[in-house]
Design goal:
This protein has a single domain (65-251), classed as Uracil-DNA Glycosylase, subunit E (3-Layer(aba) Sandwich), CATH 3.40.470.10. The termini are far apart. It is built from eleven helices and six strands. The chain is of the alpha/beta class. The structure holds uracil (URA). The site of uracil has 11 residues, from loops.
Length: 252
Amino acid sequence: MASKKLQENLDLLRKIKLQGVNEIIGNSPKNRLKSNITEDEANLSQNDKYSNELNNISSLPDLKAINNLDDLKDYMSKFKGCELYKSATNMVFSDGNKSSQIMLIGEAPGHDEDVQGKPFVGRSGKLLNKMLEAIGLSRETVYIANIVPWRPPNNRRPTEEEINICLPFIRKHIELIAPKVLMLLGSTATYALLRNKEGITKIRGKWVDMEFGKLKVPTLPSFHPAFLLRQPAQKKYSWEDLKMLKKKIDES
Ligand code: URA
């Protein structure tokens, strides 16, 4: 039986949770005005945390029996192994053309995506649309999904555990779409799938051959549109990546 003190603490926690508090504030102050952190810096500190890999996760999805998109979506919508679903309004599965040869993968839904249930419909989505248009593509000619299908509270980055739990979903998703090329948008999507040691600034703009089941897919890591909104000077590199993507599709 729980001791009196423990019971009191549990009651207090329940009360706090009922008031809508879902994050714990750290003891040391954080400079939230310091926004010029690069994608690399953010990712490398994140990578430090990605050390325990899958060892501590007891709730990984089992997708062996899943062989079509509807079943995958259905399985994900009933999955309770990732706590993020609790605070999300909608699960964000995908958008675009299921028969497309091009699949783009982002990090996780933000506020607008959570409300609308579609990936990349907010500010970074608008920039993504323009980027696609610049190489003659559109939302209707590509397929888009995220590493994590539920919005992390306050738009924080998904944790190592959340990414690892959701990883089988996106890997299966890629297998089912079977695109000719894959573009990874940002450091989280890149690290989740490639486990790269170097940051996105180094790894972007180079094709990597990835395997998903029996499928082999040339994969191009690139910057995330949200990062480009913060650092417009980096757009020239994304433009190079977009041209590489276009060339690859034209050749295939
Ligand atoms: N950022 C992402 O990575 N994905 C979205 O769907 C929206 C913003």
